[in-house]
Amino acid sequence: MQLTVNGHTVDVPIHVTTIGLLLDHLQLNKELAIVELNRVILQKDERDEATIQPDDYIEIVQFVGGG
Amino acid sequence: MTRYSRQERFIPIGEQGQAKLATKHVLIVGAGALGAPTADLLARAGIGKISIIDRDFVDLSNLQRQTLYTERDVVKRLPKASAAKQRLLAVNADVQVAAYDQEATVHFLEQLLTTETIDLIFDGTDNFDTRFIINDIAHKHQVPWIYGACVGASSLSLFIEPNQTPCLHCIMGGLPTSGPTCDTVGILASASQITAAMQVAEALKYLTDNKEAMRGTVFSLDVWQNTFSSMDVASLKKDDCPTCGTSPSYPFLQQDATTRFASLCGRDTVQIRPTYTTRDLTTLANKLTDASITHHNEFLLTFKVTGYTLTAFRDGRVFVHGTADVTEAKKIYYQYFA
Ligand SMILES: [Zn+2]
């Protein structure tokens, strides 16, 4: 399935059907990620279950803790 | 030409904005990769007063990015806040600077925000624990603060204003329990400088009453991967948030006692914070008959014992260098500070 993630076209395996699975697939830390799906920001408690479709536009911001 | 002519010619600031800046007082928590350039920019911009706090001293590995400091500060082993003050006053003697060579504990921040009027707080810390304390205290005292963080080549910054924006607690959902809290992947000065510059830009808009120009988004970028993003998080504000909601409990202001012994990230050092808050360094120096003293200035005393180096600060704290293990550090500490 093809998605746009942070402006780049990304091909993900067929089992990646939710935002939670996408974050796992991209090896991102779920505690530090904020996700927009088709320009709508996802509330944290609903985020991981949100389903994704081909050609979805996804924006992911990873919080950074250093300084 | 006056000192601030270039900034005053910038129309949104002008002479009026410049005059406003001169009346503002900011608190910078942490005088490292973010706090140092932030303080430098604000002093040059003509802010009224800077209060700056840091628990550490200037180390050689800081000079790559912490632009206020010099080799002389490393040789003299000056605490960062005091070294920052010297430099800031040399840059702009019209700015008032208060330096605090100590830890930004809940107790300290409470006292400062209760006794002084602070217009804005800058996050120059390197960990989420202190940021959640800043988030709570800022909301309790209704002072806006600016989150800033960087690691590797990436940067993130965000302006948080009580009653206006979601807070850090709303956005992150709570203190992260996992993930890279220690700075083990290094840091490019380009990433820290750009973070500080973004924080200061938002601060200038806020402090000169140009709120309509404020970005209002989580801004993140990576100077190596050439990516950036600006995300509007306004819809994440929660009415039942324990920090900024309708009946806040400020959970991160309850835990001061737990941090008496802390391993400092990436420093191979453990900090011990005793209950007393002053130490006479000369008396200590006279007692240390079996140790070799390597540094002794008005702020701290460093001495070597077998396998370890210890630094005792004027405010009572002790660093045990040479271990990141708290139990091991405690053993050494009690040998010299029973
Ligand atoms: Zn909140």
From TrEMBL, chain A:
From what superkingdom does this record's organism come?
Bacteria
Q: Name one Pfam family in it.
A: ThiS
> InterPro entries per the record?
Beta-grasp_dom_sf, Mopterin_synth/thiamin_S_b, Thi_S, ThiS/MoaD-like
What SUPFAM superfamilies does this protein map onto? MoaD/ThiS (SSF54285)
Q: What is this protein called?
A: Sulfur carrier protein ThiS
> What organism is this sequence from?
Metalysinibacillus jejuensis
